[in-house]
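# step 3/5: fold
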Amino acid sequence: MARLHEYQVIGRRLPTENEPTPKLFRMRIFAPNEVVAKSRYWYFLSKLHKAKRASGEIVSVNEIFESKPLTVKNFGIWLRYDSRSGTHNMYKEYRETTRAEAVTSCYQDMAARHRARFSSVQIIRVAEVKAADVRRPYIQQLIQPALKFPLPHRNTRAAKRSDRSLIIAKRPSTFY
């Protein structure tokens, strides 16, 4: 289960006499809950347009669910993050079952590799990538059709419970 959820947040500026029907702005936000999703919405909207929470309203907040959450897919994530030296753009690929899980693992990866906190990472775009269009070699090695994983050390168990023993005089032979 992913720590983050995907929300669709729709908001607008408050109606005024000059603008009785203001333009609606829709964003897909990844956040742990609705409250954080609304907060991130206003954070991004204030950077993109001249709008802020005091002079605006949220029209709707909906959680977006994956259409096929049991199939493994390749996701490409475009992001920017603030490091100690500056702001950087980045493209990363993940192999997950849902968009939310891919973004969750992206945040974990950014924290591990680049020491980037949740607040300093901005997800620009998340897209499902076809197997032929995968760029990163660490994902390409997982989409080979005849992929096999070795089982180097296996412990064989006796078929019948009566043949099993708690104490055995010799060490197990775990190689083949």
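# step 4/5: annotate
Residues 99-114 form the longest helix (16 residues).
# step 5/5: archive (pending)
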